[in-house]
Design goal:
Largest sheet: 8 strands, mixed
Strand order of the largest sheet: 6-7-5-4-8-9-11-10
Strand content: 25-35%
Helix content: 25-40%
Order of helices and strands: EEEHEHEHHHEEEHEHEE
């Protein structure tokens, strides 16, 4: 499938798939979307001092990198990706310059360079495990405080937004854990509700009216 580098509205890059008319991040701003959906609505809502995060769709590593920059707690980050981006594509991402984080370039590079299926200490307070895995094969139980659900949209990959997938997400979360996603589709919300999540509609990132946050409430 053809892949192109696209510059989004906030100046940050993404990978565009013209055959699907889909991209790894919002055309209205890759970095803006990460901060709004995953940091402000996700990371900053977690009370635990030691935070375990599961990312569904590691992709370009942008969510991971910004989480590292914004983390005020100990973080163990697990990024799941079935089809990793290439080193050449990573080199074309301009996140370092747009974020003005040249001093952290080695950290961003390390996140992509480290081996898969192993836990790596990125800093004293941030560890990363990358798993090359289909989302359908996730079997974690009560393991995470927070899930970044950043799969390609339901329009192009509806099989990733089903009751079956959200049951796996529910199982993977600890009690009172939360899942955040840019999506606000009614079918996605209904799938979340069906497996037991409490679901909120929140204001969306630039270009989207709403987004969803789901919580695994204690019984």
């Amino acid at each position: 499938m053809k892949r192109e580098i696209l510059i989004t509205s906030d100046g940050s890059s993404t990978i565009h798939l013209p055959d699907w008319d889909e991209q790894y991040h919002s055309k209205n701003g890759s970095i803006n979307e990460t901060y709004h959906v995953f940091i402000e609505s996700g990371l900053k809502q977690v009370a635990a001092e030691n935070v375990s995060i599961l990312e569904i769709g590691f992709g370009t590593g942008l969510n991971c990198f910004i989480t590292y920059l914004e983390a005020k707690k100990n973080i163990h980050y697990v990024g799941v990706e079935a089809y990793p981006v290439t080193a050449e594509e990573v080199e074309k991402m301009n996140f370092i310059s747009i974020l003005n984080q040249e001093k952290e370039r080695d950290t961003f590079d390390k996140m992509h360079r480290v081996s898969w299926e192993e836990k790596h200490q990125i800093s004293d307070t941030f560890s990363l495990t990358k798993r090359k895995q289909f989302f359908e094969d996730i079997e974690d139980k009560d393991a995470f405080n927070l899930i970044y659900f950043d799969a390609f949209g339901a329009r192009v990959q509806p099989q990733l937004w089903t009751v079956e997938i959200f049951q796996k997400m529910f199982n993977a979360l600890k009690e009172n854990g939360i899942l955040v996603t840019y999506s606000a589709k009614g079918s996605v919300r209904r799938a979340m509700l069906e497996v037991g999540f409490t679901v909120e509609r929140l204001p969306g990132p630039p270009g989207k009216r709403e987004m969803l946050r789901a919580t695994k409430k204690s019984v």
